[in-house]
Amino acid sequence: MFIIDVHYKVGLEKIEQHVQAHRDYLDQFYSNGTFLVSGPKDPKTGGVIISLSDDRKLIDEAIH
Questions:
Q1: For the sheet containing 46-51, what is the strand order?
Q2: pTM for the model
Q3: Residue 64: pLDDT above 90?
Q4: Nearest alpha carbon to residue 50 among 13, 1, 17, 14
């Protein structure tokens, strides 16, 4: 299991342009059982993903 702590490097205006594409990307990892849950932080400075996988290489590939 991994907890992935995401920090935005650009402003929310730029982030919001890519939300749907980001969700579509995450869906592939939900459908194959890699990710359990994810969501934005409050305040919106990034997000958190909880992964059920214990394969560090798979996680690194997913988040890079």
A1: 2-7, 46-51, 35-40
A2: 0.83
A3: no
A4: 1
Structure token digits, residue 45: 């400075």
Counted residue by residue, the chain has a size of 64
Structure tokens at 16: 């919001």
Q: What is the pLDDT of residues 4-54, one digit of tens each?
A: 999 999 999 999 999 899 999 999 999 999 999 999 999 999 999 999 999
Both tokens of 55, joined, read 């394969």
Cβ(50)–Cβ(6) below 8 Å: no
Secondary structure element (H or E) that encloses residue 47, with its range: strand 46-51
Tell which residue, 36, 33, 32, has the closest CA to residue 4: 36
